[in-house]
Amino acid sequence: MTTNTLRKLHTLDQIKRAAMGAGSHWFDKSALRFFGSRIGEKVHPVSGGALFVSSEQFDYQSPRLYSVRSCTFSGEIDTVGEFQQYATNQAAHSAAARLVKSGFNLIAECSNG
Predict the structure, then answer these.
(1) How many CB atoms lie within 10 A of CB 65?
(2) Inter-residue contact 42 to 36 (CB < 8 Å)
(3) SS3 labels along the chain
(4) Cα(7)–Cα(65) distance, rounded to whole angstroms?
(5) Burial tier of 3 (Cβ tally within 10 Å: 0-12, 13-18, 19+)
């Protein structure tokens, strides 16, 4: 294993830089606006990257729902679990914290996928 695979992302700025470095437009203002997305500042570091929470709202009549997302150290972003699985921000962050406590890591996830 290389040193980079053991590294963790600790801030949302680090996640954004990793994603941009991989050529992702995930955090572009236009993309966030198009999908009605919001990104929380709280980050859950794990080996190989980090977990974070996003929320999306289809339209003003639809509820805002929350997803746990992962970002690898190389900038790949994915959904952990189901898209919009959680009704509240707190529920999504609690799920992310449980994953961290259980030893979840992106190295194992990437090698299984």
Answers:
(1) 18
(2) no
(3) CCHHHHCCCCCHHHHHHHHHHCCCCCCCHHHHHHHCEEEEEEEEEECCEEEEEEEECCCCCCCCEEEEEEEECCCCEEEECCCCCECCHHHHHHHHHHHHHCCCCHHHHHHHC
(4) 30
(5) exposed
70 contacts 51 by C-beta, under 8 angstroms: yes
Name which of 67, 57, 18 is nearest 36 in CA terms.
57
Please state the rounded mean pLDDT for residues 45-55: 96
- Which residues sit opposite 65 in a β-bridge? 56
Q: What is the pTM of this model?
A: 0.88
